Amino acid sequence: MNDRLLVLVRHGQSEWNLKNLFTGWKDVDLTEQGVAEAHTAGRKLKAQGLKFDCAYTSALKRAQRTLDIILEEMGQQAPIVRDQALNERDYGDLVGLNKDDARKKWGEEQVLIWRRSYDVPPPGGESLKDTVARALPYFVQEILPRVLRGERTLISAHGNSLRALIMVLERLTPDQILKRELSTGVPIIYHLNADSTVASQLDLAA
Asked: Can you tell me the distance from the alpha carbon of 90 to that of 133, in angstroms, rounded to the nearest whole number?
């Protein structure tokens, strides 16, 4: 059966998510809650009866560990490709700063623009548009052809790198994708048509 299955999962809660810090490319680990979220994601995918032929993740351990836990929970092994094209958006000079402290330093409005505009990057960092320009070609060239060939594919990555993929899959505008919230550890299951449009979509939220 050529079911053209693609599952996206944002990594479980990280140590810096918990501390409300800008994380970006900083290689922080999962919290206990993040580990639990990854186990829950694995159980939910197993309950759907899914099996994967290949898996992709970023060069950052919070996404890699989430993927490993999911596959372990499912009792599956799949070839894993790790690539920094799927890394989180680089927050540049904001990395390591508490979001409240950043607001005090630059002002509420400026920080909101950096976080929620499509094409304005923080100092030394990437905008969402930059992240799309990095992640999307990798997805289109490396991952999508495998999905369209019927290889069931799992991607464990980050809020903004996944937004880049979702923007194209769901045909969202820049304004729409900025409003799209992705919960940690919640799988989104897509079945694609032969032309790569979405045939069905299922969010496995709690």
From this structure: 13
Residue 88 appears among annotated catalytic residues: yes
Asked about 181 being catalytic, the answer comes back as no
Six-digit token string for 73: 């929970």
Report which residue type is found at 185: G
| Residue pLDDT, tens place only, 94-125 | 999 999 999 999 999 999 999 889 999 999 99
* Catalytic site residue from 11, 37, 126, 151: 11
Q: What is the pTM of this model?
A: 0.95
Please classify residue 79 by burial: count the beta carbons closer than 10 Å to its beta carbon, then call 0-12 exposed, 13-18 middle and 19+ buried: exposed
- Indicate the domain borders of the chain: 5-203
Q: What is the CATH class of 5-203?
A: alpha beta
Q: Which residues contact 115 (CB under 8 A, 6 or more apart)?
A: none
Q: Which of 15, 32, 88, 126 is catalytic?
A: 88
